[in-house]
Amino acid sequence: MSGIWGLREKRLIIWGLVLAVVVLLNLPAPAAWRVSAECRDSIGPFQNVFSLLVVRTGQWVSRIGRTQRILEEKQQLEVRIATLEHRLRRLERFEIENETLRRQLGFSILSPHKLLLCEVISRGDLSGWWETVRLNKGLADGVASGMAVINDEGLVGRTIGVTARTCDVLLITDPNCKVACETANSGAFGIMRGMGARLIGRAAMELLSPANPVELNYISTTHAIQEGDVVLTSGLGSVFPAGLPVGRVGGVRMHSSGLYRQADVVPSASLVSFRYAFVVMEQKQ
Questions:
Q1: What is the pLDDT of residue 260?
Q2: How many whole angstroms from its chain centre is CA 105?
Q3: What is the biggest distance separating any 2 CA atoms in the chain, rounded to whole angstroms?
Q4: CA distances from 251 to 50, 94, 275 (A)
Q5: What are phi and psi of 273, to 5 degrees?
Q6: Could you tell me if 219 and 262 are in contact, meaning their C-beta atoms sit under 8 angstroms apart?
């Protein structure tokens, strides 16, 4: 019975709707307008809410789009800034290198010796004060063992272990490097030798610099010598030409034997960080 009544109810509802539509379509114009107005007024609030939702949704989507574009533009700007900073650092390095090369070229032109410009390609150990360096010139460039090596600041060392394209340089701080020198002020002669490096601190990586890196020995007690005097190569021997700047006297003392004096010499050339050096080939004509 419930199934039959349910079917009848559905039919009654359908017929009622059809009847309502027929009635609405056949209403007089004023009555139809009033019904239409009531319907519009009834659904108006819902239309306002829907319209507001559409507008707010559009604004939200637009903001998301703008935010995404801003983020993309920010990333592009960051990439451009990083690229420009990299180029600026390269230009600064090139400028420093060009200035160094110009200084070396000027020194080479003014030097009374024929010089061969070389670049340091490796250093001898991990300490802070290198006692050997390797240059990028060798036998093919006319370099031989036992040639003096200088830079625009002063004496660096002498060549050893020469190959076709490279040569090693024994620095003046090495104990095996001995140089005949004289002081420019008093003409006092002596033999200079390197004193090597002294461990400062606990770790091997803390080898910072030699204590008294270079020492001048066998100075006559009759010659006046004092702190600050300029030290030059004397030209005695066959390796180092006369007149190459070596450094300045840092301190003077009498040897324990009392037969001669000794002096600490502060090298003119920075032996830790130089990048270019000259091999002294011969005297200019």
A1: 93
A2: 25
A3: 144
A4: 95, 39, 29
A5: -125, 10
A6: yes
Mark which of 94, 110, 126 sits at the end of a domain.
110
| Same domain for 21 and 134 | no
CATH of the domain at 122: 2.40.10.350
79 with 100, same domain? yes
If you search the block for the tokens 């107005």, which residue do you land on? 37
> Which range marks the domain in which residue 79 is found?
1-110
* pLDDT one-digit tens code per residue, 85-118: 777 777 676 666 666 666 666 656 556 778 898 9
In a shared domain, residues 120 and 253: yes
What are the angstrom distances between the C-alpha of 247 and each of 93, 161, 224, 267? 29, 26, 17, 4
Q: What is the mean pLDDT of residues 45-49?
A: 71
| One-letter amino acid of 184 | A
**Beta strands, E only, 109-213:** 113-123, 132-135, 148-150, 155-160, 167-171, 178-183, 189-194
Q: What is the Cα–Cα distance from 197 to 208, expressed in whole angstroms?
A: 8
> What is residue 112's DSSP assignment?
S
Instruction: For residues 57 and 164, state if they share a domain.
Output: no
Question: What is the b/e burial string over 144-169, where b = at least 16 CB atoms within 10 angstroms of the residue's CB?
Answer: eeebbbbbbebbbbbbbebeeebbbb
How deeply is 54 buried, as exposed, middle or buried, from its count of CB atoms within 10 A (0-12, 13-18, 19+)? Answer: exposed
Cβ atoms within 10 Å, residue 56: 10
Domain total of the chain: 2
Residues 155 and 95 placed together within one structural domain of the fold: no
- Extract the tokens encoding 31: 């009555």
The last residue of a domain, from among 79, 110, 141: 110
